[in-house]
Amino acid sequence: MAVATSPRTIPTWDLPLRLCHWLLVALVIDAWISNKLGDMRLSWHIWNGYAILILLVFRIIWGFVGSSTARFANFMTGWSAVTHYLKSTMRGNAPYFPGHNPAGGWSVAAMLFLLTMQGMCGLFASDDIMASGPLNFLLSQTMTGKLSTLHSVGFWLLLGMIALHLSGVFFYLFFKKDNLITPMITGIKYARDNHPEPSVQIQSSWIAFLVLIGSSLLVWLGVQVWKW
Amino acid sequence: MIKNIFSMISVVTPFLLVAPLFAEESNPSIIHRQGIYGAVGGHMKAIKSILLLEFDAAKDVTFHAQGIVDAFTHMGNSFPPGSDKGETKAKPEIWTDKDKFAQLGKNAFGAANELLKTAQGGDKQITLAAFKKLGETCKSCHDDFKSK
Question: What is the ipTM of this complex?
Answer without folding.
Answer: 0.72
